[in-house]
Every structure is written in structure tokens, then in C-alpha cells.
Amino acid sequence: MNIVRTSLFLFLILASTSCQPKNKSDKPETVQKAEENALAEVKLTAEQLKGYETAYFASGCFWCVEAIFESVKGVKEVYSGYSGGTEKNPTYKEVSYGKTTHAEAVEVYYDPKIISFAQLVQVFFGSHDPTSLNRQGPDRGAQYRSIAFYKNEAEKKIITDYIAQLEAENVYDRPIVTEVKKFDKFYRAEEYHQDYEKRNPDNSYIRNVSIPRLNRFKENFKSYLKEDTH
Predict the structure, then answer these.
(1) Residue 99 to residue 150: CA distance in whole angstroms
(2) Which positions ≥6 away from 224 have C-beta within 8 Å?
(3) 38, 98, 149, 207: which one has the fewest Cβ atoms less than 10 Å from its Cβ?
(4) What pLDDT does 14 receive?
(5) What pTM, to 2 d.p., does this model score?
(6) Can 64 be counted among the known catalytic residues?
(7) First vs last Cα of the chain: how many Å apart?
(8) What is the pLDDT of residues 55-90, one digit of tens each?
(9) Which domains does the chain have, with CATH numbers?
(10) Of the candidates 170, 190, 66, which has an alpha carbon nearest to the alpha carbon of residue 128?
């Protein structure tokens, strides 16, 4: 009976927390706007990011995915946003409620002299469940599907070769359902989503889903972490 009660308790916690608009903010609009302006000053400019390569991934709530890639050495900046669909200028409300064909995704700026695209692909597959169709953790819907985007044939081969390796080694007991998709367009999410995990440590979703997911990644990829994130 205790096991049943514990399982039910955990289910209720996860069910009440999700990467949804209701978690946007409970702060006054003026306070939130001031924080957004401060964040815009912290994020690097396009000029500062010149010379870095970009990679794009989708693997569930972008709050979690952004924090994971931010912890990886050689990664200079990460933006949360939307990709993989056809609609122009999607909003968070539209995407999170499944009203578009986009998925929540991240744009990763990285230094290929420090971290390679192949290693980022390993980070991607090692930080989520690629066998879960249209779902990660408590978040359900095609907007949370797993996608590895490629910009050229070389990147596509890296992704497909790694999937073949994972399958040959029977790393998972279910088929990998990750989409391997040609990159088209990335739309950055609203400012309050950028660095969301860092700025909202007391958010219930962050406490119960994002931080545990980040910690699991750190435990398994210690050699890939920045010095200040161990």
C-alpha cells in the first residue's frame, strides 16, 4: 500500500507540473519586464556569436534542454525557440498547446575546436528518451517530440550513424523514434523563456523535472561539462 501511495504522490506531482503557459510567471508585469530587459543584456549579440557554429535539437521542454546544453564545454550560447514546423512566427501559447506543427527546440552556438557536432549529438541522445513518441517526462504532444536537425549531408550522416550504433549496441529496449530532419528555420522564443531554469529555480516544474533531468545528464557526462558546472 505504501508503494501505491508513493507512486500516486509522484504521479500527482508530475501531473501538476508541465512546460505550459500556466507556469509562465506569477510576478507583476513590471517586475517581469525588468527581468526580461536585464536578460536581453546578458545574452550575447549576433556580432559576439560570429565565428561559432550552430546546431539545433528538440527533446522535450526547452527549459530543460537549454540548461543541459548550456552546461556543456565549448557551448557559448543557447536559445530556446521553435522549429520543425511550417507556421511563421509561432508563439509559446500556440506551440505549447499543439496548435502548430513546430516543436520546442534549442539553438546551440558552439566552438567546434572544443566540442564537435558528433559530441553534441551524443549529448542530445544521452539527455532524453529518444524512444518516447511525442512525450518527454510529464509533457505530451508532438510539440515535445524528439528531433535531431541537420544542416548538411555530413551532419545527417553523423546523426544516422550514431542512431545505428545505439541500435546495434541495444542501448534501448524500444525503437528510437527521433526524427532526423533537415533544418529550415528557428524562431526564438519569447524573452522570458531564455535561461528560464536559472532565473526560476523555485518554479515547481524546474524543481521536479528540469533540475533532476539536468543532474542525471551531469552524472553521465562528467567529461563534457564546463568547469563551473561540475
Answers:
(1) 25
(2) 72, 73, 115, 119, 123
(3) 38
(4) 44
(5) 0.85
(6) no
(7) 38
(8) 999 999 999 999 999 999 999 999 999 999 999 999
(9) 53-225 (3.30.1060.10)
(10) 66
Over residues 6-17, the pLDDT tens digits come to: 333 343 444 446
Are the C-beta atoms of residues 101 and 87 closer than 8 Å to each other?
Answer: yes
- CA 82 to CA 229: how far, in whole Å? 26
Which residue in 230, 209, 229 sits closest to 78, CA to CA? 229
Q: Which of 57, 142, 58, 139 is nearest to 100 (CA)?
A: 142
**Separation CA 103–CA 25 (nearest Å):** 21
The letter for the amino acid at 58 is A
CA distances from 193 to 23, 78, 222 (A): 11, 11, 26
Q: Which amino acid is residue 211, in one-letter code?
A: I
Taking a C-beta distance cutoff of 8 angstroms, is the pair 89, 187 a contact? yes
Number of residues that this document lists for the chain: 230
**DSSP class per residue in the chain:** -HHHHHHHHHHHHHHT--SSGGGS--S-HHHHHHHHHHHHHHSPPTTTTTT-EEEEEEES-HHHHHHHHHTBTTEEEEEEEEESSS-SS--HHHHHTT-SS-EEEEEEEE-TTTS-HHHHHHHHHHTS-TTSTTEETTEESGGG-EEEEESSHHHHHHHHHHHHHHHHTT-SSS----EEEE---EEEPPGGGTTHHHH-TT-HHIIIIIHHHHHHHHHH-GGGB-GGG-
- The cell numbers describing 186, all together, are 528557428
Q: Which grid coordinates belong to 25?
A: 510567471
